[in-house]
Amino acid sequence: DGGITQSPKYLFRKEGQNVTLSCEQNLNHDAMYWYRQDPGQGLRLIYYSQIVNDFQKGDIAEGYSVSREKKESFPLTVTSAQKNPTAFYLCASSGDSYNEQFFGPGTRLTVL
Amino acid sequence: RKEVEQDPGPFNVPEGATVAFNCTYSNSASQSFFWYRQDCRKEPKLLMSVYSSGNEDGRFTAQLNRASQYISLLIRDSKLSDSATYLCVVNAETSGTYKYIFGTGTRLKVLA
């Protein structure tokens, strides 16, 4: 089955620690995205990548980093510099930059 | 003014009712439009893309009004299982880059 997987589903982190969220897709999509969703708010773009080895900052990139070494994979690192990291993180992919996106099941990060 | 605006609801409707949601967008250069459904604590799932000529999928009808810059979603014969948050998504080119802009969603509760 084609799709997007994210792991882990739930993640707990102590303050001051970096954590990496995994996102893998087998849809052969070029574009991949990371969003953050907070209660009662819309999705906010963290980073996106339109091709391998290239990525751009979204609207709220501070305190996050990404890599895109393979087409299938777009991991997100939440660094200790992110001041309020507790949120629901969603990874998405699309075949191009303007058609529909497909989302992974999300990772719920809680900072203790 | 927000780039994409939706009435947050909730819309409480009885089973079998017809309900309509609107979503307004501010960028007149917006290229593509989508409705997603998001269940509580789950990822958004594509409900339908919205085409200029309007489109229908079973009980769901989506329409685009470029002149007034809004899209709509009509749900006929509401089912209990339609209870969810409906996200409006607009894709627009800004400074040579396509971006997806998400509304904050409209909550629908279908009551028995």
What does the secondary structure layout of this molecule look like, with pairings?
The complex is a heterodimer of chains A (112) and B (112).
Chain A: E1 4-7, E2 10-13, E3 19-25, E4 31-37, E5 44-51, E6 54-57, E7 64-66, E8 76-78, E9 87-94, E10 102-103, E11 107-111
Parallel strand pairs in A: 2-11
Antiparallel strand pairs in A: 1-3, 3-8, 4-5, 4-9, 5-6, 7-8, 9-10, 9-11
Chain B: E1 4-6, E2 11-14, E3 19-25, E4 30-38, E5 44-50, E6 55-57, E7 60-65, E8 70-75, E9 84-94, E10 97-102, E11 106-111
Parallel strand pairs in B: 2-11
Antiparallel strand pairs in B: 1-3, 3-8, 4-5, 4-9, 6-7, 7-8, 9-10, 9-11
What this model shows, in words?
The complex is a heterodimer of chains A (112) and B (112). Chain A is mostly beta strands. Helix content of chain A is 0%, strand content 49%. Chain A has strands at residues 4-7, 10-13, 19-25, 31-37, 44-51, 54-57, 64-66, 76-78, 87-94, 102-103, 107-111. In chain A, strands 2, 4, 5, 6, 9, 10 and 11 form a seven-stranded mixed β-sheet that branches. A four-stranded antiparallel β-sheet of chain A has the order 1-3-8-7, with no helix packed on it. Chain A starts with a strand and ends with a strand. Chain B is 0% helix and 61% strand. Chain B is an all-beta fold and 112 residues long. Chain B is built from no helices and eleven strands. Chain B is globular, with a radius of gyration of 14 Å. The model of chain B has no long low-confidence stretch (mean pLDDT 94). In chain B, the strands form two sheets. In chain B, strands 2, 4, 5, 9, 10 and 11 form a six-stranded mixed β-sheet that branches. A five-stranded antiparallel β-sheet of chain B has the order 1-3-8-7-6, with no helix packed on it. In chain B, strand 6 (55-57) and strand 7 form a beta hairpin. Chain A binds chain B through residues 33, 35, 40-43, 45, 56, 88, 90, 97-106, 108, and chain B through 4, 8, 31-32, 34, 41-46, 49, 87, 89, 91, 97-100, 102-105.
